[in-house]
Amino acid sequence: MTGDPQEPIDLDAVREPATPPPEAPDERTEQERIAELEESESERLTRMAKSPAYRSIVVAERENKRLSEQLRDTNTELCRLHQEIEKQGPQLALLRQAFHDLKGNFSIAALLMTAGGVLVSIAGAISDATWKPVTLYGGVTAFSIGFLFTVFTFLWVRPQS
Q: Would you list the domain boundaries of the chain?
């Protein structure tokens, strides 16, 4: 046999084993072989566990599992929020429509600023030490809210076409 792929195989040149293998290995030999395999497997796993590459794989798998759980929780929360948005859709549409009504926004702001101015004026006329600061702070707060509402409407709310 020269190793040439075109050469035909001579089946007579192949030697047969001297003794045929036993039909079934005896029980003791089988147990010894299994014990050797288990021992070599445990040694191999021990060597692998001590290697930095194996530790990095274990850490990566643990992190992957944690991130998968976090992603599942986030997706669950996202689905819940989408359902809440769908349920609140009509009220949100009415609110958006109301916010884009510039005449209504400026009217509310004007009322708040007027009420605040009136309360500050009343606070100047009150001589009672208990009610004077309450009225003054209430008036300043109402005026400030009206002013901020005006600024918000002027800067961010665009009328719908």
A: 25-92, 100-161
